[in-house]
Amino acid sequence: GMGGVGKTTIMKHVHNRLLKEDKFKKLIWATVSQDFDVRRLQNDIASQLEKTLSDDKNTTIRAGELLEMLRKQGTFLLILDDVWSSFSFEDVGILEPTTDNGCKLVLTTRSAKVVREMDCKKVQVPYLLTDEAMQLFLSKVGQDMLPNPNLESIMKDVVCECGGLPLALKVLG
């Protein structure tokens, strides 16, 4: 979905909710970002497993080591946030989730192309409806602003301009 629609926020809620459950032995969160770097991603995942990868080995060797770490981990949920381009899970060392190993992988991206290329199931995050957008905006501005008829018209225009994007509504609110 579009930037600011709430992909990361939704995944933070999912992550935090799952922390309270025993569904996975490990929850792993890694922000990939536009300047994707295999070594950085490998390090991020390994550090959340409380392990380290050798800096003097090439990425292929490190991928094999990370894969083994994940295998030994048992069930895990790996959240890859802010993915801008597709990459090979194998090249990073990410264990392929299967029904047998009980592991899950979720990624957030703005690109439908990335979803297709990485063979993931697409879940679209919808924009807020006008009423929902107004409620979010008012929660940031303050409900006491609504009785003012002059401000109400301006607020409706602002909410309309935000196009149902929660981040824009929060920032402007």
Topology readout:
Elements: H1 7-19, E1 26-33, H2 38-48, H3 59-73, E2 76-83, H4 89-92, E3 104-109, H5 112-117, H6 130-141, H7 149-161, H8 166-172
Parallel strand pairs: 1-2, 2-3
Helix pairs in contact: 2-3, 6-7, 6-8
CATH top level label of the largest domain: Alpha Beta
Q: Helix and strand succession?
A: HEHHEHEHHHH
- Give the biggest beta sheet: 3 strands, parallel
If you average the pLDDT, what whole number results?
A: 89
The total domain count is 2
Radius of gyration: 20 Å
Percent in strands: 5-15%
DSSP summary, beta strand count: 3
What general outline do the C-alpha atoms trace?
A: elongated
Helix share bin: 40-55%
Helical stretch tally = 8
CATH homologous superfamily grouping of the largest domain: P-loop containing nucleotide triphosphate hydrolases
Strand order of the largest sheet: 1-2-3
- The assigned CATH architecture of the largest domain is 3-Layer(aba) Sandwich
Keywords: ATP-binding, Nucleotide-binding, Plant defense
GO molecular function: ADP binding; ATP binding
Pfam families: NB-ARC
Domain NB-ARC: 1-144
